[in-house]
Design a protein that fits this description.
With 412 residues, this protein is α/β, with parallel strands linked by helices. It is globular. It starts with 9 loop residues before the first strand and ends with a helix.
Amino acid sequence: MSDIAFNQPTPYTLHLDDELLEVTKKKLHLARFPDEQIDVRDDDWSQGAKVKEIKRLADYWANTYDWRAEEARINAEFNQFKVKVDVSGYGPQTLHYAHHPSSRPDAIPLLFVQGWPGSFLEARKIIEPLTNPPDTSTKAFHVIVPSIPGFGPGDPPAKSGFGPMLTARAFNILMVDVLGYKQFVTQGGDWGTMITRSMALQFPKHVRACHHNFFPCGPPPWYRAPLTMGRLILSSYLYSKREMDSIKQMQRYQNEQNGYLKVQSTRPQSLGFGLGDSPIGLLGWLVEKFHEWMDVANYTMPDDEIITFVMMHWMQGATPGLRYYKMAFAEEGEFSITHMMSRYSDVPIGLSHFPKEIALPPYDWVAAVANEQIRREHDRGGHFAAVECPELLVQDLREWFSSDVVRKAMQG
């Protein structure tokens, strides 16, 4: 798309080459699997993805899964486009996005931003209820779902430096200059939280309210919030059970589950040689994340859904999604992730708390850096809320973005 004009959307249809599909099947049939140790239980994922489960999924992928049928469904369900934008501090970058306007004249624009190892397909189950609610008393939205560059059909950045701060600039151009939405609201989890939070800090005149189902931040320094620190010290007495469970969840993530982050944020390309060449390697790497971060007691990913999520990174050779971590932690400046999560933003936010989410801290931690107006707590769901429990996320989005706080913000 190097020859197209800036800010001019071009309709896009997803289509993978036959050669890639054929090579993938050959690699699946030639795969070599590790052995499980005989004293490790079938339900013990502490060493990573279970061999039995990966073998089962690999067999399904090689012999049953139909990418062409899934590809056709994706193209039928999503109004996809690509557009070239000029990103300040970087230069030209092509974006992939889906745009689903509502027929309702009172609808408000909602930017939905995914995370890793997800893709724009995370929004698959929520677009229809958000754009076409059951009655006129229920809030309607124009839904825009961009791909992080290098995720799914999103063109990977050709040069280094493109992390959440620059993604935020690119997505703001998409919303304001390409689509003409001068004011809008956002929803994000995982990287989507980082990107939309950076957008709110950089472009508060456009980003009028945010919703998150993931919000990583630590307690504020004791000298800024002595009561918060005192409450933390006495947490066994003063924290609710929900808050204590969240702290334990964050500690478990830090101690047992974030090895991927260390590798992907330091040497992603070395990892990419393996995961970008082996569909089994990528399958095992991602399935372990799905199992650990989802509320598997209440949601089981269908096999087709698992393989399609993996395909969104396999089609790019995996490395761009891995490399995004390196780019994120290398960014510098007041809107980079190393600074922005400790910076206060007065753009109002709403939070949804799902019990298996890996990072949603106590109220007073969030209050030190964000203008939290509402928090809804649920008894099921995990890190992939739009996939696991879309009806609960839709319910919370409707409630928060229908509130007087948001209505006044949109009028400001």
